[in-house]
Amino acid sequence: MSTLPSPLGFSVLVHSSSFKFNLAHFVTYHTFRERLHGHNYTLSLELFGPSISSDGYVIDFGDVKKVCRSVCKEINEHVIIPEKSDCLDIRPLPSKPDHIILTCEDESIFVFPKDDCYFAPIAHSTVEEISLMLYGKILEGLGAKNLVKRGIEKIKISLSEAPGQESTVEIPVEEVSKQERSGGDELGIR
Predict the structure, then answer these.
(1) How do the domains of the chain map onto residue ranges?
(2) With 60 as the cut, is the pLDDT of residue 153 above it?
């Protein structure tokens, strides 16, 4: 019987037709604002480690799928509101406290029911910042300490807003776990 080769490392890639959500948004920054529009986003996740755990897994696909589906469901069919934007004034609508009014730097005004909004701890509703926000939610769902214990060193999340338009972010899990232990904001976007 031959021996198994010594691998350089392992990764698991998880994507599913259920890792999708719809968001309406517009990007705004100083002197610029897009028109309000929407995307049908799709998500995939890759986890990297030098070895497999004693149970034979890098991580159980079922655990990853459960977290990703939950995150997608939470934000699906909303208007994303970037709470950290320096170009938006976000306030309750005085005549209807269950609505918000967004006033843009260019003086455009939008009114939305609060329940239709997803208030995101980001400055811009770009696919890059949304993917970073999702990374934080997925990491929270999987547990950074659990991932470090399993030997997972890095997570890569890819988020597509349209065919051929995708953002990918990679962050070492140990770095995030250290910040989590120190009580710091693990992703720097909140």
Answers:
(1) 10-181
(2) yes
